[in-house]
Each structure stands twice: as structure tokens, then as C-alpha cells.
Amino acid sequence: MLAFIFSSLLACVMAIFLSTNAAAQKSPKRDNHATLVSQTKYSWQKLQMPTVAQVSTTWRNPPAEYGPEPYFDMSGAVDQAEVQRDLDAMKALGFRAITPQAGVNLPFEYLSPEYFKFFQMLVAEAKKRDMRVWIVDDIGYPSGFAGGRFTRDKPELCMQTLVVAERIAVEGGSTLHHAVSQDTVAVTAIGENQTTIEVPVIGGTIDWTAPAGKWQVSMVEHHFDTAPTRSGSNPKLATEPRPNTNNVQAKDKSQSLEDYLNPVATQQFLAFTHEQYKKYVGDEFGKTILGFRGDEPDYSVSGLPWTQSFFDRFQQVKGYDIAPYVATFLQPRGTQTTPEQARARADYWDVFSILFADSFFKVQADWCAANHLEYQVHLNHEEAELELTQSEGDFFRDMKSVQVPGIDTTRHQIWTDTISDFPRLASSVSHVYGKPRAFTESFASYKPPADATMARYVLNEQFVRGINLAELMYFPSSNAGGRPRTTLMEQPELATLMPYAGRMSYLMSMGRPTASVALYLPSSSMWLNDRVADTQFVSTERFLSEHQIDFDIVSEDALAKDLVLGKGAFVTMSGNQYRTVILPAVSLISQAVLERLRSFATSGGHVLYLGRTPSLIAGKTILNARTPGPDEFSWATVVPGELSPTPTPSDNPPAQTPLAQVIPPTMLQAILDATPIRDVVLGQPSTAWRILKRRWKDADVYLIFNEGAAASNHTVRFIGRGKKMEVWDPQTGTIAPLRAVKTADGLRVNVTLQGYESRVLVLR
Predict the structure, then answer these.
(1) What is the residue-wise DSSP string for 527-560?
(2) What is the reported pLDDT for 481?
(3) 238: confidence class by pLDDT, cuts 50, 70, 90
(4) What secondary structure does DSSP assign to 256-292, as a single string?
(5) Cα 229 from chain centroid (whole Å)
(6) What does residue 448 show for φ and ψ, rounded to 5 degrees?
(7) Residues in a beta bridge with 163
(8) For FRET with 396, which of 135, 174, 297, 558 sits at 20 to 30 Å CA-CA?
(9) Of residues 443, 642, 613, 456, the one with CA closest to residue 520
(10) What is the CA 267 to chain-centroid distance, rounded?
(11) Chain centre to alpha carbon of residue 138
């Protein structure tokens, strides 16, 4: 009997395996049975390699799983009649899916049985309309406070930080007798020249005689402290006359976030939320319900992120005790620390990012995968990477396990007067780790409000950078007491934009990416507060985009271990191969990355260090990083000079339009020489055109977007397979031939684009 069962199971597994498209690239690894499903039932969760014929039969009316979806704010006296009315209204606008979130002034308590019965009804009504649902995982943001349940029921699992609770000046030769709190984790004396001495605590008391000089003794304590939350169940918010989901004035610390660095806390968050949804609507998981949507988990705190096991985990990872250093990280702003202290602080951020990724993001992603769902989430201020590294650690680590990595643009981050390449962060994680999609939360509180024309521009800027799932903010429930919709939701032209966005999302989700250039994200340099590396990274993004060089961003972990090293290529889990790696003015890399880059270069790959080579090479620790030898980078191309800074997009319109980028001629030529095989080559240079390429089973697909206001015409050489070119119009759903001239390596085509116009071309 056991043999029969085993043979039957083996036959089933082999049948599923053989049914997978033989031409498809390696699928992403998942630690659950979610990958052992049929190609049709959960195809939207996996990379697909369809033929032109297969795409052409589906793209005019793509599956609802490809969106777009509105952020549906359920506030006020919501009931079944209101749900029916609002779902009908959203579907009439062209939405095929929704992202509902519990809001303010509900007629029932959030996460109560009454709430879940209401949500059960909502899912049933969505199913009747063949609409899909993404569940927002909290009643506000950042994700992880469970509507106040941690504060109320599990205070021991609330967010914690390290702070300096007390500073005492001590003269040399004098003795300090002082009782300390039971919350004290370290006591350190810091001298005038930043010399540090670990001060012993015996029986809860300091009894320490200071050596010569002037000292300041800092008592470091762990406190239960949280980043501010904006909760729909917060009475302060409920009394606002017209609540605004992005009104930061309504954020406070009355409802604490969970301890993101403790997996037990995240399991408790799942028990408060996800498991309850499973109890009531689990039969629709992977069907009507596509997954859970998280929002901006981060540490916007004044102290250091901490959890009870942090010091032990740090010791395991780094091999030394970080406690004597933490007081130096918490000195008043502007204090000049030593290089040793700066390196130790970088080690702290490194371990923090590991804990955040493993204890929060991975736990939720694994739960979703085990339940045939996807987890989509975006972080805070993706457009300001230096800030992100000190509140979320490392973008790639956080997003590695997440099925649908995301970004947001809710104020003015993307507009015709900004330079905004940060959406590639999310799409690059998807490309590196074999995920089919990356999403955007767009609009919300845009300044000025985005109409349908500007919304198309904002979406196109993201589509051409690899985003392929769009959530539009926001659609308020009609029972919310007269709360207005956003300008976009009121525009008749929205009904025209929606089919365009849905078809574009579908087309750009099919196949796999082809980028052959990798741009290194210098997170570890930013842990050292290296602003030059941050600035040059952003400017290199701009350079590549403005020269029509399709690229992915890659991380330290990707280069060190996650990418497959072949002959002159790093291969992603999506199947694209990087032939060129660019490192923009980094000050620190690891020994593991150095060795892999050397092997890559000596087997035929191109490695470019822009501006400078790293001054530090880290092994197990950054603290003990070594100085490179004189010939350490002789195998790479080192290009002197700097690209001019690129303005960081902000919440408000800039005072002036960004100036043209200033590029040292030697740097321009070096980058072009290192990217000899380019997907698209324009007859004349243009900094306005952007390109993205994907590959289907029997065709190459190009998205071209003119980000300039003026119309322009170019003779374009497309490098790819195929004998004919077609224009696929996502607005009309039509396919038309485009006259082309055959070349040795592709086709040459004359292309005219109006200002802010996009075009999808298929070479087959």
C-alpha cells in the first residue's frame, strides 16, 4: 500500500513537472508546496514563457489577477448595500481587483467576529463580480500593530529600541557611585577623544573611578518604544472631520508596532490577523483572495532598533560583543566618531537588516506561500536609499522572500519635473529572485493632484522600469460621510486609462527580463553614512536610463552568493545574465563579493568601478575590514571622475526642473565600451527615451517611453530574434505590423513618439 501511495505521488509530481513549459527558465525556490500546482491554477504566481499566440488570445481582456486595483478605504457605516454599490462603481471604472482596508468609524470593532463576518460578505460580493481581493494587513500604517492589539494584549512583544537614558560627566580621578535601571544593557564611558571604556555594573550599581581626563558615562537602556502608527481605531483619528490616510498629524505612539526583530512577535501578528482571515475566508485563498498587502514597516525611531536576543545574535554573526559600542552610536547629532566606531555601527546595521528580513518579512511571506497566497509590501522612502538603510536595513534583504516587492509614489516622487529611477529597486528584486511581478502604490496625496493624463505618465515611468502591477489610491466607501475621492477617481478619462494599465501590466508580466547590466546597490557603504556612494548610485541609475541601457540593481548578497556565477556571466533566478557589473563610488565591499567579481571578470565579464575603488574590504566583520592591496583591482576597469548629483524626489514639486547630467567623457566611453551588446540603439542620442525588454518563448518585447514633452523621431536598431516587428497597442488592444529593415543582429525601425508617449513593440 505504501509503495502504491509513493508511486502515485511520484507520478503526480512528475506529471506536474513535465507540464511546465520546457523553455521556461528556472522558477524561484519556495519552501512549501505552493510551487507544486498546475500551470493554470496559480500561473499568476510564477514566471511564464508564453508564445506570441498565447499572449495574443489573452491580453485584450487579461485575467483579473493583473489588476489594476484601487485602494478601497472602508470607513463609516459600511454595510452590504454600500459594498455592492461601491464594488459596482469600481468595476464600472475598469477595476478588476480591489485592495480593501478597514478604516475609521466602523460599526464594529476591527478584528472582531462582526468585522470578519462583514469581510466574508465583501469577499462573496467580489466573487460574484469576478473581482479579486488583496487584503491590507492592518487598519492603518505602518503594518504590524494589529489595530492596537499588541499594546492591549501583548505588550511584551511590542517594538523595542536602545536609548541613552542618562549621561553623567565625570572628571578624571573622581569616583562615580550610581544605581542603574534593570533595563540597562550597557554602560560606557566616552572620553574627549572618543576613547571608550566599558563601565562594569555589579548588583545594579556603578562603582567606577575615572582615569585622567574628562569623561561622559552613558547608560544605555532598552525601552518599549514604537515608530508612530496611524490607526483607524485610534480615537484621535476617528474624530477628524474628513480623515486622510496620509495625514501624518494623526500618527502617534498610542498603538505600538510589534517587535519586528522577533519572529515570535510576527507569528503573533499573523495570529491576530491572517489566521483569522483564514478562518472566515480561507476557502477563497488563491482564488478570489490573492494575498496580503503590507505598508511601510520601518523603524522611524530616535534610538537604535533592538530586540532581547539582539546582542546574542550579533555575537553569532560577527563574533564580537557590540554592547561596548552602542553608546557611541547614540551620541548627539554632529558628534564626530572614530573610524572604528563607524565600522562597528555598520556591523550593527548589517545584523539589524538580517533580523528584520528573517523575523518579519520572511515569516509573513512563508505563511502566505503555504496558503497559496502572495505577500506584497513596500518600504518607506524608497526614493531616499541612505535613509532607508538606517530604518529598514537593506532593501534586497527585506524583499528577497516577498512574493511581490513594491514601492510607492504617493506625493510627488514621480512627475515630469523629477528624476525617479527608484522603482527599479522592486523590479530588480523580482528579476534577481525569479518573481514575476513588482507593484506600485501610486497617487494618494499627490501634490498637485494627478489627473488621468498625469496618472498615465506616472504609471508609464514605472512600467518602463519593470513595475507591472498597479494599485491606485484611493476609492473611499460611499458611506464614509461625504469623504471625497481623489481627483483621479472622479475623472471620466479614468475608464480609458484602466484597460491600458491592465493590458500593460499583463504584457510586462509575461516572459522574463533580459537586462545584462547590473548596478550594485552600495547599502554597506551607506551603513558607513557614505553620501558619495549614495549620490553616485542614483546618478548612475540616471545615466543608464538616459542612455537606453536596460539594467537591474543587485545587492551585496546577490553578488556574494545568490546569483549563479557562470562563464563571464551572473545568472538570475529569472534566467537573465549579467555581463557587466557597475559599482558606483563604493567605499566598502566584502571579500566574498571581491572574489566573485574577480572570477566573473577573468572569465569574460566586465566590472567597472566608477569614481574610486573600495577603501575597505570586509570579511566576517566590517569592524575589522582590511585595506586593499595596490593591485587588488587590477582585473577591473577603474574610471575616475564623478557624475553630477541627481536631485532626490521629494513630497513637493522641486523649485526647478533638474539640470542635464554632466558626464566625464572618459566615464561615458568606459560605460559604453563595457556594454557592447545593447538591446536598443538610437540613431541619435536622446536622454528622453527609456527602454525595457522582456523575452517571450518566441519573441522579444520592447517597451519604449518618451519621458520628454517634445515629440521625437529616431531610427532604432533592435537587437533580438525574429524577422518582423509589430506594434501592440495597450490602449486599443490592437496589433499592427511595423515596417522594418533586417540587419545582421536584429531589425532597424523608424519610430516616432509624441511627448510622454509609450509604445510596445514585439519582434517575432
Answers:
(1) HTT-HHHHHHHHHHHHHHHHTT--EEEE-HHIII
(2) 56
(3) low
(4) PPB-TT-HHHHHHHHHHTHHHHHHHHGGGBTTTEEEE
(5) 20
(6) -70, 165
(7) 221
(8) 135
(9) 613
(10) 22
(11) 19
3-state class of 86 per DSSP? helix
* Average pLDDT of the segment spanning 613-621: 98
Q: How far apart are CA 12 and CA 456, in angstroms?
A: 45
Cβ within 8 Å of residue 163, ≥6 positions away: 220, 221, 223, 225, 302, 303, 304, 330
Q: Do residues 694 and 720 make contact, with C-beta atoms less than 8 angstroms apart?
A: no
Residue 32's CB: how many other CB atoms inside 10 A? 13
- Compute the distance between CA of residue 416 and CA of residue 620 in angstroms, rounded to an integer: 44
Q: How many CA atoms lie within 13 A of 284 on its CB side?
A: 24
Q: Give the integer Cα–Cα distance in Å for 505 and 472.
A: 13
425: left (phi over 0), alpha (psi -120 to 50) or beta: alpha
Q: ∠ at Cα 147 (70, 95), nearest 5°? A: 10
Cα(110)–Cα(530) distance, integer angstroms: 43
Task: Give the DSSP letter of residue 296.
Answer: -
Containing 637, the helix (H) or strand (E) segment is: strand 637-639
Cell digits of residue 618? 570586509
**CA angle, 533 then 534 then 539, to 5°:** 95
Could you tell me the pLDDT band of residue 190, with boundaries at 50, 70 and 90? very high
Residues in the chain, how many? 764
- How far apart CA 609 and CA 636 sit, in angstroms, is 7
Is residue 597 within 8 A of residue 612, CB to CB? The reply is no
DSSP 715-757: EEEEESS-S-EEEEETTTTEEEEE--EE-SSEEEEEEEE-TT-
Return the half-sphere exposure (C-beta side, CA atoms, 13 A cut-off) of residue 569. 12
Q: Which residues contact 345 (CB under 8 A, 6 or more apart)?
A: 325, 328, 329, 337, 527, 528
Q: What tens digit of pLDDT does each residue of 428-437 get?
A: 999 999 999 9
Beta bridge partners of 132: 97
User: Is the full-model pTM beyond 0.85?
Assistant: yes
| The three-state (H, E, C) secondary structure of 474-528, written as one string | EEECCCCCCCCCCCHHHCCCHHHHHHHHHHHHHHCCCEEECCCEEEECCHHHHHC
Question: What is each CA distance from 328 to 121, 528, 588, in whole angstroms?
Answer: 54, 14, 21
Confidence at 13, pLDDT banded by 50, 70, 90: very low
Please say if the pLDDT value at position 10 is more than 60.
Answer: no
Q: Which residues contact 171 (CB under 8 A, 6 or more apart)?
A: 210, 214, 215
Separate counts of helices (H) and strands (E) for the chain: 22, 38
Which amino acid makes up residue 573?
M
Give SS3 for 18. Answer: helix
pLDDT tens profile 675-686: 988 889 999 999
DSSP conformation class of 361: I
**Sequence letter at residue 256:** S
Place of cell 522572500: 401
Better-predicted residue by pLDDT, 227 or 480: 227
